Amino acid sequence: MLASVVAAGCFIFVACGKPDPNSVIPDGMTMVQGAGAFGSQCPYGSIAEPRPVRLGLWECPIGQDPLELKRSPSPLIFQADCKEKTIAIRTADRTVDTFWKVMPDGSFLTTIDSGLIQLAEDGEGNRNCNAYPQAEIWGKLDCTDQDRVTISVNTIWWLTRGKKPEGASGADCRLPKSCYLHAEGKVRQCQ
Questions:
Q1: Each residue of 149-190: pLDDT tens digit?
Q2: Is residue 62 situated within a structural domain?
Q3: CB-based contacts of 159: which residues, under 8 Å, 6+ apart?
């Protein structure tokens, strides 16, 4: 499944602001009203404002086109260290704070539970319902300039695979197990 997602991801593009109404939507993708966001943290502690990345909904036949998000995924903050070959991944709300070694070629792959996403409608009559995603994050570090690392990132939020966070309230969405959001982008650390 991951290989087909990666292949499909080649058609997704990064955009800030409003989507271009003339842009081509890949077959099988549903537009999403709402955005993900990727940011970076410098080794000295300063955090760059997360930048929006365009989300696409895939493998999710719920009849919501576009899918409206009332609450988008929490922004992902990345901090890479090329000398130590590590990457830290956090959510902006600090519900996730994880640390991983990267492969010798700078690539990485990890899976984390990532809070909640709220949908305006799930196609089953549930309004303002919650999905509890599990995020699959992969990418590669470009360490040409070790002080200003460029991190290529792909993220899939599997909408039905995560754990319900403590204290989450509201109706749960009823979604097919195949539903996921996808985004990709480049994070330029300390730039």
A1: 999 999 999 999 999 988 889 999 999 999 999 999 999 998
A2: yes
A3: 60, 117, 131, 132, 133, 173, 175, 179, 180, 181
